[in-house]
Amino acid sequence: MGARISVVVIALNEEERVSGTVRSAREGGPAVEVLLVDGGSGDGTRRAAEGAGARVVPSPPGRGIQLDHGARHASGDWLVFLHADTRLEAGWSAELGRQPEGVAGGAFRFAIDSPRPCFRLIEAGVALRCRVFRLPFGDQGIFARRAAYAAAGGFPPFPLMEDVAFVRRLAREGRLAFPRARAFTSARRWERAGVVATTLRNWLLLGLYAAGRPPGRLARMYETRPSFPSG
Fold first, then answer.
1. Cα–chain-centroid distance for residue 3?
2. Alpha-carbon distance 231 to 229, whole Å?
3. How far apart are alpha carbons 160 and 218 in whole angstroms?
């Protein structure tokens, strides 16, 4: 019997997108368990997730809190973590199952769900970051073996940069892998604030985090519309 997989989807008021995310995870096959970790949605997020085949797990809000809460309720040998606006490409579970024993975790190939050519440049930049720095972000579908997740201490309870903090610790437990299957994330962030503005803000936040700025303060900056020129 192959390894069991648990997909943890975190959400807050995502009824329009969550069913597609859950269905993409369910397409991984019968050995895939899908958990929707809801941070207190006031819309139909829970109902939509259940209708698509997920088990709903209530949680206090916050990205790091919800991710770790889901991991604690999951039963799989592999743990896959998705944002509610990210869906996995067909064949993702087969690629995950082929990872050798020395792989502690990793992430899928980043893709933006839009045909605009400018997004291909962003995807290429993310691919370069992963190849050079081995640093995926949460919108790529980060995954980890259950034992490696526990050894790394799980996701910290940060509202932002929880993915960076976790991946750095996960890399100490074994090799990180980047399968070819894509994780398609919504283009809404870039479309709402502009491609250039959003990209510059992301770089700024990462730099400030590396310089020691508290994640809570960075989260407030993230939630504020960027003032850079839009593109």
1. 21
2. 7
3. 7
Express each pLDDT in 96-141 by its tens digit.
999 999 999 999 999 999 999 999 999 999 999 999 999 999 999 9
Calpha distance 128→92 (Å, rounded): 21
**Residues 104, 163: Cα–Cα separation, whole Å:** 15
Q: Give me 152's structure tokens.
A: 């790394």
Q: Which CATH architecture has domain 5-186?
A: Alpha-Beta Complex (3.90)
pTM of the shown model: 0.94
Tokens of 115: 């045909």
Query: Residue 212 carries which side chain, given as an amino acid letter?
Result: G
Q: For residue 91, what pLDDT is reported?
A: 97
Distance CA 154, CA 67 (A): 9
Please say whether the beta carbons of 22 and 14 come within 8 A: no
Using a 10 angstrom Cβ sphere, with 0-12 exposed, 13-18 middle and 19 or more buried, the burial of residue 151 is middle
Q: Residue 83 carries which side chain, given as an amino acid letter? A: H
Is there a contact between 146 and 104 (Cβ–Cβ < 8 Å)?
Answer: no
Nearest-angstrom CA–CA distance, 64 and 108 = 19
| Residue ranges covered by each domain of the chain | 5-186, 189-231
Q: Which of 154, 155, 179, 19 is nearest to 87 (CA)?
A: 19
Give the three-class secondary structure for 50.
Answer: helix
Q: Are 32 and 45 in contact (CB under 8 A)?
A: no
- The percentage of residues in the chain with a pLDDT greater than 70, rounded to a whole number, is 96
